[in-house]
User: Fold this.
Amino acid sequence: MAGYTNNNRSKQRHQLRSEKFGNNNYQENNNYDAKESFKKSGTVYSRIKTGKMEGFMAVNAWRKTKNGLMTASAFPVDQTEHIGDKSKNTFIRYAVEVKNADLGTLQTYWCLMQKESQKITIKELGLVISPNGRGVTAGGKRVTGYFGKIFG
Assistant:
């Protein structure tokens, strides 16, 4: 056993174990690279320029779901501002059309938009349309707003 020392055996065992089980490096084995997250929803708020509802906001929103692309269009119903009893917030009545092209559904909901925050809540679906939120889609387009589940 010329030239065969305990140190060489230790290195060989370590090399064999590394080949069999990996280098036991936590980050390499578990591949914990931070994945970039992309927005899956967005909204566009536009001020109505002419007509009976001039000055009010029209809202278009989109949301990517497992059932396909869901779009919503919201428009004010009347010019009356409603004040909440408990919250004292001001609300405006909106009609929201929700369309899912993949499922072939088109439904209309009557909702309220909170004037201060500009959030529209669709209680029947448990969804909210909000101007808050910024990000980038998977295609690289910058988008703002949020159309998704109600949190909290």
About this structure: The two ends are 72 Å apart (CA to CA). The mean pLDDT is 82. The CA atoms of residues 90 and 125 lie 22 Å apart.
